[in-house]
Amino acid sequence: MTRLIEVPTQFDDRSFDQFASAFAAATADGERLLFDAHAAEWASPYGLVGLLAAGQAARSSGGGGGGGGTERPLLTAPTHADVLTYWTRAGFFREAADLFEIHGKVPRVKAADESDVLLPVTPVRAAEDVHAVVSKIQERAAAILASELGLDPKATMGFAMALSEACQNIVEHAGTGGWVAVQAYDWRRKLAKRVVVIAVADAGVGFRHSLEPTQSKRFGARWGDAAALEAALIQGVSRFRDPGRGQGLAGIRRYLARWDGKIAIRSGTARIAIVPKWDDDVPLKDGLPAFPGAQVLIIIPEQGSTKR
């Protein structure tokens, strides 16, 4: 038997809980999974890397069928031609080919070099990958940050740090590989400005499991996914005590505070966010549908009045 998981028509951080709920229900019995994206009309970078993380989790848990994960889970590709082209240009199918048995015609389009896709969906498995990601994007990101977002050129270093630390989070906390994607586009929710979005996702052990050995006693009965996210993002706790390991999430917070940016992290059954005044997100949610690993969203908006 195959269990169906519908990919939301508009797949982004707001519809991710709907997707996670369907994923949790479908994976409970170990049947082969079919991710149905045929009706997808749009997906953010967060949606694309999140879908890859679901495929990764399905394979490792045997959700590809065959008991030991020997079969890949199924994925029905979008039928909208422009959506299909965008997913291809964004590098999604290049990574998905290793995780899913894909049904539907995927166009022969190379991953983008166009300016809106700053970094196509890119795998991160080790520290070397993080360095490669940052060096690859730094020059192009600098131009976008200055010309489209109106950020001071000095902000480029902070952006590289934020990108690096978000990717490093996979290496340090996941226990497995993950993906990052970076894109600039028009943010129509309330803001009506250009933004640069960093999306990072993995299907690893998640924050609670990663921090449990050093933090669970301190939190006592409160310990769980929400407390782990609070420790990592608000209190700047890391599983590593070495102060030379970079600035971590605290460094990202400081950078985003300066540029009125947003960070949201989902792990397990909880989600935490530093919410700027232009957004209406909730700072902390608990009791969400369980989803493996961690999913990070960083948004840096255009500065000052918009020209659009």
What does this structure look like?
This protein is of the alpha/beta class and 308 residues long. It has 2 domains: 1-107, STAS domain (Transcription Regulator spoIIAA, 2-Layer Sandwich), CATH 3.30.750; 113-308, Histidine kinase-like ATPase, C-terminal domain (Heat Shock Protein 90, 2-Layer Sandwich), CATH 3.30.565. Helix content is 38%, strand content 24%. It contains 9 helices and 13 strands. The chain has helices at 16-27, 45-60, 81-89, 92-96, 127-147, 155-174, 206-219, 225-233, 248-258; strands at residues 2-6, 10-11, 32-36, 42-43, 74-76, 101-103, 117-124, 178-187, 193-202, 262-268, 270-274, 284-285, 291-301. The strands form 3 sheets. It has a 7-stranded antiparallel sheet, with helices on both faces. Strands 1-3-5-6 form a 4-stranded parallel sheet, covered by helices on one side. A two-stranded parallel sheet has the order 2-4. A hairpin with a 1-residue loop joins strand 10 and strand 11. Helix 5 packs antiparallel against helix 6 (155-174) and helix 6 (155-174) packs antiparallel against helix 9. The longest helix has 21 residues, at 127-147. The protein starts with a strand and ends in a 7-residue tail after the last strand. Residues 241-246 have low confidence and may be disordered.
